[in-house]
């Protein structure tokens, strides 16, 4: 009996060890499968593309430099900004920070007020209505300049209802290559920054600085060169 017991006892121990080995193999297999799925997800599924912020930083810096140039480095301004997803948009935040930093570094200009303008889906490149613009122009008639990150109204900006006298200079950035030559024709705008047409974009060496990126994709227009502005 002792011999038979020994045989059965040994068999029980062998079964236990085999079960443990199978359990370990199963766990390792599950871990490998999960790791493989994760690797496939990272390598094969589309990821969120990284945004090149340099051109937008260049826009902010150039707007500040043009403002300082127009006002000879001192004065009071009002800034018009886009209100849609204002806190979430890394593009808007980087553009705005670049504008503030450059303005502070290159002038004694005071930002008297900031107005957040709602962007409409119908006109994403010209995001302020004529009514809104006229209201703000009258509200801030005593400042030296209005700097718009949201373009200008499509309508003519001549203002026959505004009393004669000094009015704020207007410096505007357009999202799109919208017709803008008429704003200079009636003397209502001082500076416009506008994207270049695709045919004008230089395909040469890759830009390195925000200013080089700006020069690649944007152009500054003022009284001296607005006649060359494409329609």
Describe the structure.
It is a single chain. With 231 residues, the chain is an alpha/beta fold. The protein is elongated, with a radius of gyration of 31 Å. Mean pLDDT is 77; it is low at 1-9. α2 (54-70) packs parallel to α3 (90-106). Strands 2-1-3-4-5-6 form a 6-stranded mixed beta sheet. α5 links the parallel β4 (169-173) and β5. The chain folds into 2 domains: 1-47; 54-228, Response regulator (Rossmann fold, 3-Layer(aba) Sandwich). The longest helix is centred in the N-terminal third of the chain and has 43 residues, at 2-44. It contains 6 helices and 6 strands, in the order ααβαβαββαβαβ.
Task: List the keywords.
6 strands; 6-stranded mixed β-sheet; elongated; Rossmann fold; disordered N terminus; alpha/beta; 6 helices; 2 domains; 231 residues; 43% helix; single chain
Number of strands: 6
Shape: elongated
Secondary structure: helix percent: 40-55%
Quickly give the structural class.
alpha/beta
Q: In the CATH hierarchy, what is the superfamily of the largest domain?
A: Response regulator
**Spans of at least 5 consecutive residues with low confidence:** 1-9
Which CATH architecture of the largest domain is right?
A: 3-Layer(aba) Sandwich
The percent range for strand residues is 15-25%
**What is the fold named in CATH at topology level of the largest domain?**
Rossmann fold
User: Any idea how many domains?
Assistant: 2
